[in-house]
Amino acid sequence: MKMKNLLKAALRSLAKNKMRTFLTMLGIIIGVASVIAMLAIGQGSKQSIQAQISTLGTNVLMIFPQASSAGGVRMEAGSSQKMTIEDVTAITERCPSVAYVTPQVRSSGQLVNGNLNWRTSVYGVYPNYFEIRNLNLVSGSLFTMSDDRSATKVCVIGQTVVTNLFGTDADPVGSFIRINKIPFKIVGVTEKKGQNAYGQDQDDMVIAPFSTVQKRIMAITHIQSMLASARSEPLITNASQEIKDVLKAKHNLGPSEDPDFTIRTQTDIAAAATATSGILTILLATIASISLLVGGIGIMNIMLVSVTERTREIGIRMSVGARGRDVLLQFLIEALLISLLGGFIGVSLGVLVSQLIANILNWPVTITIQSILMSFIFSSAIGIFFGWYPARKAAGLNPIDALRYE
Amino acid sequence: MHLQCSGVAPVAGEDINMDKPIISVRALVKTYKMGDVEVHALRGVNAEIGKDDFVAILGKSGSGKSTFMNIIGCLDVPTRGQYHLDGVDVSSLTKDQLANLRNRKIGFVFQSFNLLSRTSALENVELPLMYNKKITSRDMRERSLNALEAVGLADRAHHFPNQLSGGEQQRVAIARSLVNDPVVILADEPTGNLDTRTSLEVMAIFQKLNRKGITIVIVTHEADIAAFTKRNITFRDGKIIKSVEVNKPRNAVHELANMPVMVEEEEV
Predict the structure, then answer these.
(1) β-pairing, A60-65 with A225-230?
(2) Do B131 and A321 touch (CB under 8 A)?
């Protein structure tokens, strides 16, 4: 039988039982729609986590000293004081994959402006910290390396600090504040960055030249950690290896000895967070797939009923020359039409539901082409798989028995 | 050229001896197994039906006449024996080849019409042609309309079976059986569900088709219907017990002409 006639026959028999066809399709529609919506939610949350992580800067490496130990008692991580400013210089000079590196010290400071005060973290870093962290200024300008060399008392403050010390929408550039009773001139205000992936307010901080904080506020000689950035994201592994080699040499450690520092990259953190949301996506998609499977069983059920009901029709067709293959194709095409049409409506419904979720619940939602294609392929595979058995049953009928069937 | 393959119709009688029968069966045996019991439906049947023949097969139920029809209609295969249809040895064919043979060489008419419901008369007639890939859509339409015209239903082409009377439905079925230019039309109790008048109408069509050269075999248990045919074969207990030429076949057209008066009397 020609394809055109087969399609016509299948469409006609589906049209004969509109309600039944629709209800059978509904199983597939709901299945596909839920797969699309669940994947969209899963993908959406994955992407929003990735976006939050990338606000930290995607090619950033953090270098911490190991824990110190005194008389066998080990202190907290990063408490070792072996890291010095010479390490920073060495990395700058000898690591080609590293674009920027800055020492970092962090202290708590009580900030005072007139009758307002606020307690926050004070970071001492090189100006290239802003490059590494993708920080921008909304007002004023950055301190310079010469500020660092002379330990000038200047600082850049975050939006939260501005709000608490100067009130909303104030521009404090040029004003003076006291940090732990030492007067600092505000030279710039950073752009609002919001919370990071762990709920920490990234705007609640003061950034000052490294030497200023190290010497004037903290009065220490070592550095607490370093922040570096690789020239590009793929170079992170290289950069990490280079830093490791340079620091081990600098600290007189042999190649087989354990390093006295730890290098952590954003990719590790991102990978962990992405994996978590990946598991969530798989879980949601699995549940949705089960409903798609149930829809497929619905098709099989209806096709079996249909074959029994139309035994006589099959007999008539066979008596005028339909081969088993023709009957098989006819029923298979019916099942395929149901599942494809159901798949199409399901995809549309799934997209609609995802948009509704995005708009009403304000959840991040991402619909990918892959998930749409996958649902389509999956639903037509279900049509063929579950349509096959009933179609085989129809094709295997004996023409005489089929004709006599009441 | 001896045809082994079923798919191709023989080149219209050129290679085949005109005397050679359309249907030829030798020692045909059919045994069914119903659980442990064997039912001998046919116990060695020999028969020949030639071109232009119009045969009625008579017999009580259980005599084997339906089994015989199913086998010569290629719907069933014999347990033993030989069957040649239009020179083709049917006994050795596969299911698909049998289907092709039914499609190209045989037309069926059933007692219960067996039309597809909710499908127009025209599309019902087109059905056998749909399973023949060589025929174009236009050809299909044209041949089907011609077949409907041959049974006098050209004006009913777009009616559905439930909009047609029993007689009209059977005529659609006849149109369907002849649309593929079969070598033989097989009719199983074609008048069984029809009243006297429509039975006559159907027989008139069969007689007309037979005069045009189509071989027709009908199964019936009504002797007066058999009287319209040229030859009567009687079955009993799986064997042919009698095969007689009908001396002077009744003419359905003439009898129809005399009918209306009677019909009116009945209606009063």
Answers:
(1) antiparallel
(2) yes
